[in-house]
Amino acid sequence: MIAAVLALALAAPVHAGCDDADAFVGRAEQAVLEERLDEAGAALRDAEVAFSCGPLAPPDLLVRFWLAQGARETLLGDVRAAAISFRSAATLAPDHWPIDYGIKPYIQYKAASELWLAQGSVQLHPDPGMRVTALDGAIVVFPAPALEGLHLVQVGPSAQAMEFASFVRVQPDEPTMVLTGLPAPAADGSTSHEPVVRLAKPRMKVRGPGQRAVRIGALAVGGTAAVLAGGGAWLARAQDDVMREQTTQVDLDAVYARQQAYAAATWGLAGLSVVGLSVHFAL
Questions:
Q1: In the sheet where 119-125 sits, what is the strand order?
Q2: Sign of CA dihedral 157, 160, 162, 163
Q3: How confident is the model at residue 207 (pLDDT cuts 50, 70, 90)?
Q4: Taking Cα atoms as reference points, which of 258, 256, 267 lies closest to residue 127?
Q5: How far is CA 195 from CA 57, 249, 260, 270, in A?
Q6: Phi, psi dihedrals of residue 91, rounded to the nearest 5°
Q7: What is the crossing angle of helices 59-75 and 37-51, to 10°?
Q8: pTM over 0.70
Q9: What region, left, alpha or beta, does residue 149 occupy, with left being phi > 0 and alpha being psi -120 to 50 degrees?
């Protein structure tokens, strides 16, 4: 059975740069050392964003990220979360403690590094096609085996340009499904993109009394289509919750196909709305 369905594509704040993950982790490390824990948390969140749009994350940077996160969680008193972060760091780089965060975080780190971990797996949905896929900074093919705990999943057109990243928590003996939200591959395996609505320039030449009727009709069509497009977008988004409830791959695929149908209808209605409103204001 599928243990979890995650839709965690990271939305980048305007202040987070796609190539600044190392700088953000450095800020988090310094903030933890000075016990500026809110600033450390913000820097770690910025680093997460950078992983979603910059190059492939180096494993040593991930180790530093998890150590800073674990030290911050220890200082906040969240020992359980700190153990998960520290164990993830120790899995990639055993006995690696480059920064002296203090005796209490170090004791927590040593205890976490001794924990025995069972194995689970990570799957992606939809099929990434020809995109580069990576787990913890290493290029792999999904589904991929992974020890229980935190892992970074990245997907992008090349190792230098990720377009999706998500930290996922793998559970033992069960697959973890990650919904990337990326367009499914075309029949030839290449990746498709969101449809682009191209509008022809209105060429209606209506004069006299009929012009008012046409403008009113165009406004009605445009407004109705806009309302329906909003409903379609809401239905498409609502399928994320439905997908989280599915326990088999077949059911998940069926709900995902329904979501794509709602999305396609939303784009079509949005295009019709723009045409109608354009005609209304052009006359």
A1: 4-6, 175-179, 119-125, 144-147
A2: negative
A3: very low
A4: 256
A5: 30, 26, 12, 11
A6: -65, -40
A7: 150
A8: no
A9: left
